[in-house]
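lol ok so funny story. i was supposed to be doing the assay writeup but got distracted and ended up predicting the structure for this chain instead. priorities right. anyway since i did it might as well share w the group, maybe its usefull for someone
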Amino acid sequence: MAPLNVLMVGTGEYTTGFVGGGMSGSDKKVGVVGLTLFDLRRRGKVGKLSMVGTSGTKFPSIRQHLNKNISQAYNGLDVSFDSFPADDKVDADAYETAIDALSPGDAITIFFLIRRTPTRKQRQKTW
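and the output, tada:
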């Protein structure tokens, strides 16, 4: 059976350990989801990995963070992944493109922050 391909939805603390432009201050400094999937790929349990967020402009910094804090610390563990949207794009609907790139039987993990602050429209209703 071929290794499972996995799309990681969300690029923050639980997936990469990268928040607010740098490493998380919590116990998840290198994430949990990404680290686990990179190791599972090393073991041949998963194949192609991809990651989707809304801001592709974060991906170069995320890759640098993962290389420094995972690959260099774990004997060259491969931390490569396909990213959506492209590194120079911002696209709130990038998840659609990422899902379309999957094949039947591939897996998706979803870890992202749900906005808890009221939207502009919600704030206007309270005036």
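The chain is about 30% helix and 20% strand. The first strand starts at residue 4 and ends at 9.
back to the writeup now i swear
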